[in-house]
What does this fold into?
Amino acid sequence: MKLIYKKPDAITERDTTYCPGCPHGIAHRLVAELLEEMDLVKKTVIVWPVGCSVFGYYFIATDAVEAAHGRACAMATGIKRVHPESFVMTYQGDGDLASIGIAETVHAAARGERISVVYINNGNYGMTGGQMAPTTLIGQVTTTSPYGRKPELNGFPMHVPEMLAALDGPAYIARAALDSPQHIIQAKKFLKKAFTAQVKNLGFSLVELVSACPTNWKMTPVEAMERIRKEVLPVFPIGEFKVAKGVE
Amino acid sequence: MGEKVLMKGAEAIAEAAIRAGCMAFFGYPITPQNETPEYFSRRMPELGRVFLQAESEVASINMVYGAACTGTRVITTSSSPGISLMQEGFSYIANSNVPCVVVNAMRGGPGLGDIAPAQADYFQATKGGGHGDYHSIVLAPHTIQETADLMFDAFDLADKYRIMVVVLVDGLMGQMMEPVEFKEWVDVSKFKTPEWATVGQGDRKERNIITSLEILPEGLEKMNLALQEKYKKIKENEVRLEEYEMDDAEYALTAFGTVARIAKTVVDMARADGIKLGLIRPITVWPFPEKEIAKRAEQVKFFFDVEMNEGQMLEDVKLAVNGKKPVHYYGRLGGVVPTAEEIYGEFKKLLGGKE
It folds into this structure.
């Protein structure tokens, strides 16, 4: 028998803490595959967030630190500035990055910190039970927007890549989605460019991954993926918003 | 030791830290200590070291946290409101067992308060400040020379115990100029990345994970007990104090930092009048010199605690004295610095014309 598909070595044997149907596993796999393919595993420090991926260091086998809620980009800045030869990345959700950690994110991007950010957008606070996030769609029902998100009360969904692309510091900014094989293949390409931006010392890089939260969306995994295509991607379109020379 | 130079306290802090091998500074501007980051911003690039102005104190302490996870000598300096913003980071740093140094040039509070010297962050500094059961080592120098010397000890203690060390000064110490002689430069070429540091696994057998998270209560209790064990060791080995004219003292002033400096003059005034007054000055306000104060409780008639706050160290003095002798208090609030005459006057009221 020929082995044609296996778990990357950089993914540990441990059972994950994620719900059935959660795309965090896909995102972890993409990160692990790329770290291996780019020969970065032994150089990498991942700064994990507060959120569903708070235990991420149990699942991806690199050196790791666990940041306070929202502070991953600041912590990554501290590591990278004193240890520029390390590959330093953060892995953050939308509550962590776009809400409580937006200042740290924007300023790390503006300074052009040589760090890479994997940003998971699943439209709600998953770990705490499905509260409204900065990325929650208009009309979306969550545990803290029981009548649906209303612009007059809660404002509008935040488009982080589009915001950051307006700055001069970032070298690569993109949004991909984890809803289908084609999009996942594309997500890996985008992530590779983001990691390359750091390896080539070009500047800050971030890829938003539009993800699903079947548990809190109260959907089956298949329905959740369909919702991404029908409802989420029209608001959060896939694309590359900033590509510095040399990233390709 | 080199030659004596006349220097502002805030700048001497930076120069001493640099000589002590501080490789990185992260911070945010706040009065009355801006000369410290400004000095770092000039000197660190000259030495090929890191200076970074953060977007907030929240960010700067988390940058410090990140750098500390690599085992690099790192510092931030700030003043009371900025230090309040950093408390969450302090708590994470404590339960992650990473070393760093933080200078707080205290100013008057609460709230935005003022920019005058105060000591009202004593509780915050010595009792933890952030959430959870933790302590930092807190050094409270009373002259610029002592501050410069203690900066070296601060980094050594931080590395030795993998702990945050706070150098607790105030706006007066920061703004005052005094002659200062610096210790010899620490040879940073000898620094090695510690085994526990998170810099990428490299050739290490196991990967390193630095976290303050442990979801199982029994596991978290173990982490807490390990912290308490460390604090016990620090209490046993690192208490420092100065006793001034205490050998034959019948009365003891207790004071730290700027007030202790003024208190020495008060002791001299009393001695000139033939009154046997001494001073107990904790240099580590955590760990607190409780045994030494308890011992003096056998000797003196009463203690007189003076602070630039509402009586914060007073509580530690009272715990140490444990009811054996009266402990009186006098203090000024909001950034008002008491004069030696004023303190001596209050002391004489306590004597009640007995002398």
